[in-house]
Design goal:
Blueprint (H helix, E strand, L loop, with lengths): L15 E8 L8 H14 L5 E8 L2 E9 L19 H15 L5 E8 L11 H13 L4 E7 L3 H7 L7 E4 L4 H17 L3 H7 L4 H7 L5
Parallel strand pairs: 1-2, 1-4, 4-5, 5-6
Antiparallel strand pairs: 2-3
Helix pairs in contact: 1-5, 2-3, 5-6
Length: 219
């Protein structure tokens, strides 16, 4: 997949920090190429001047593998994504939010994108209620944009259980991960270009067209 980094800028000097939490558990093996291509599409959709970081997670590790400007240096190669293990989704989110809180100091807008093809089954540190309270606070108090992409599941129902909104949750087929992450990148850009954080969260909602293309016959 050829990726072209866009050069549009964020208006009014707004600074965007975007972070992707990407499932690397064993079941992602069948869609590894889509996952890598999708992450790279997300980077390409971000505005000029944005900073982007990436965490890959499974039961063997929650690993920060990127933190740089959204240029070609932020892109991921196929050899860096090797699915394995189980799905500690809550631990991945909880640890990542703590990391992003530190790394995003001084940024006006913060976006967090979570993509998984499975359900929580391996967390040791965080529980669902912990993540629910954490994500609600980051969205409602700090104005973060939180996007949940659930592959082969009802992302509305699953995401709602741990604090993501229906408007920013997207159900996706594993064959459409590149499209879904590109859509998430465009949503993130809309959030960054809005007049303020809270209105940006509203303007970043997924459209009916996005939902139809991400997972035909799903909402």
């Amino acid at each position: 997949m050829t990726v072209t980094i866009k050069t549009n800028s964020i208006p009014d000097g707004t600074r965007l920090y975007a972070h992707v939490v990407l499932d690397r558990s064993g079941t992602m093996d069948a869609c590894a190429a889509e996952a890598v291509g999708g992450y790279n599409a997300y980077v390409a959709a971000l505005p000029e001047g944005a900073r982007v970081s990436l965490t890959l997670f499974d039961s063997d590790g929650v690993d920060l593998v990127r933190d740089s400007e959204a240029t070609s240096t932020a892109l991921l190669s196929a050899t860096e994504f090797e699915p394995r293990g189980m799905t500690p989704l809550y631990d991945a989110i909880g640890r990542t939010v703590a990391e992003v809180e530190t790394r995003s100091a001084g940024f006006d807008r913060v976006a967090l994108v979570v993509l998984t093809d499975g359900y929580e089954n391996a967390s040791q540190e965080f529980r669902r209620d912990d993540i629910l309270k954490l994500l609600k606070r980051k969205q409602e108090v700090d104005g973060w944009l939180v996007i949940y992409l659930g592959a082969n599941q009802d992302a509305w129902a699953v995401g709602e259980k741990f604090g993501t909104t229906a408007a920013n949750s997207l159900s996706v087929d594993t064959t459409r991960l590149s499209f879904a992450l590109d859509s998430a990148g465009r949503a993130t850009r809309a959030y960054a270009e809005a007049l303020d954080r809270q209105s940006g969260r509203l303007q970043s909602s997924f459209s009916a067209a996005d939902r139809g293309k991400a997972r035909p016959r799903a909402r």
